[in-house]
Amino acid sequence: MTHHDLRGASAVVGVGLAGCGEAPGRTAMELIGAAAWNAVTDAGLKMTEIDAVFGVSAVHGMPSVTISEYLGIKPRFSDGSMIGGSSNVAHILQATMAIKAGLCSTALVCYGSNQKSASGRLISSAAEFNPYEQPYKPRFPITAYALAAARHMHQFGTTRQQLAEVAVAARAWANRNPEAYMHGPLSVDDVLNARMVCDPFGLFDCCLVTDGAGALVIVARDRAKDFPKKPVYFLGGGMAHWHRSIMQMPDITVSAASESGPRAFEMAGLEPADIDVLELYDAFTINTILFLEDLGFCPKGEGGRFVEGGRIAPGGSLPVNTNGGGLSCVHPGMYGTFILVEAVRQLRGEAGDRQVENPETALVHGNGGVLSSQVTSIFGTEATL
Amino acid sequence: MTLEDRGPGPDAVYREELLAGRFTIQTCADCGLASFPPRVFCRHCGSDALTRVEASGHGVVYSTSAVRNRPDKGGDHNVSLVDLAEGVRMLTRVDGAAPTEVPIGARVKARIVTGDVPHVVFDLVTE
Ligand SMILES: [Zn+2]
Questions:
Q1: How far is A128 from chain B (nearest CA, A)?
Q2: Residues with CB under 5 A from ligand 1 (ion)
Q3: Which runs of E-coded beta strand occur in B13-106?
Q4: Is A353 left (phi over 0), alpha (psi -120 to 50) or beta?
Q5: pLDDT tens digits for A197-253?
Q6: What integer is the mean pLDDT of A67-75?
Q7: Span B58-124: which CATH code?
Q8: Is A151 an 8 Å CB contact of chain B?
């Protein structure tokens, strides 16, 4: 067993969501406020007991400062590092470090957006002027992921049918989640026959645009049992990023998850075979395939064949994206928060009809930008400590 | 020793060269590797010994996509990644085939497009 200082050093003791799907009439900050209140209440705490805030937002330049003011918190430690959709996954690692270092005791990690109601389109960290990209009118972030998918298909024989299996599995999970935005049947043919958006992606290969906010409360391990809910322990975390612009990604079929994953596994002292449930940032169908490969769940190039036959769907051998994913549950611009919350619910046994049977470990993988920032976190129940 | 930090920088020089009809790439006198987009020092080895050379313009399509748009919004257009012979990759557009029909692996040749933001596109090379 590994002895990394951060392994098991913290635990999630509260989670909350707000405004997922559509929340007309609400500002982003109101949604963040509601999610934070829900998470703090879930932990049996009062907002004034929070002494550290880790938050991001698509519309605030100093997010953790604005969020703290709104919530009435005067934090001892605060961080609003913006690395795209993986930001909150990274904040779990940073909160654990700050707690372990004695800089704070009770941390709030949060994100929220009202982008569907406010604009109806994806407001993402990828929207930045770049004179070496803009003249070609890419539809970022979609085009970048489409280029990765096209290359993966060319290089490994991955098919649109295999990409579609990812969307079909996500919908099948969403159908078991009353909080998911999309419900109803979705077949491989439905995915293949949908309007094309950016080849090889049709409409259902792309994530939703929704409203939504999420929050988590993190405390030190020695306090984890002082709260009403079953604690979910942080076992390992790792980050990596190699590029910001898709043209600078060395091999667009290999993401930096191939470094963040092994770092997280090493800290946790675990291997892919030890993971009971996976929550992978599925902004597009290719993401799930790339991350299954890069995190070591199947060999490079085999991800398309790996997801065939419902392997990652309900009833399959590997439960992946059990809330319905960014493809069918919720995707308010930055989705990392929501996979963290789903992993906690699964490990607590609170996932209702989509509950995986007695999971002890969960892997969360966050992605940001255009396959840019990759952050892996591994969580476990008390039995894994 | 410090790096030059005044006057037209590498981005401005690249743009001026394009407007003058020259597509240029930085190469490193120390490690021999090329950098694109332009940098103030070599992104591979950190050396400041960057020189600007005219690119051959020869490339190969690394990946490709078609951004779909309704005809009244300009219709579909191609976006590709092209690997230049000099060893750098560019986001670009490939002409000479329908936007959806650009083959990965195809040979392409650079062409400069001037305007507000001068840029380089590629044409499919037909044997
Ligand atoms: Zn060099």
A1: 15
A2: B 28, 30-31, 42, 44-45, 47
A3: 24-28, 34-35, 50-54, 58-67, 77-84, 89-92, 94-95
A4: alpha
A5: 999 999 999 999 999 999 999 999 999 999 999 999 999 999 999 999 999 999 999
A6: 98
A7: 2.40.50
A8: yes
Give the pLDDT band (50/70/90) at residue B126.
Answer: confident
Q: How far is A164 from chain B (nearest CA, A)?
A: 17
Q: Is residue A104 left, alpha or beta, with left meaning phi > 0 and alpha meaning psi from -120 to 50?
A: beta
What value of ipTM does the predicted structure carry? 0.97
pTM of this structure: 0.97
* Separation of alpha carbons A201 and A270, rounded Å: 34
CA distance A112 to A126: 17
pLDDT tier at A122, thresholds 50, 70, 90:
low
- Decide if pLDDT at A284 tops 50: yes
For the domain covering A139-201+236-384, report its CATH number: 3.40.47.10
Q: Is B8 helix (H, G, I), strand (E, B) or coil?
A: coil
Q: Name the fold adopted by A10-119+211-231.
A: Peroxisomal Thiolase; Chain A, domain 1 (3.40.47)
Residue A342 touches partner B, C-beta closer than 8 Å: no
**CATH 3.40.47.10 in chain A, residue ranges:** 10-119+211-231, 139-201+236-384
Residue with tokens 């391990």: A221
Query: Quick one: A155 exposed, middle or buried, by C-beta within 10 A (0-12, 13-18, 19+)?
Result: middle
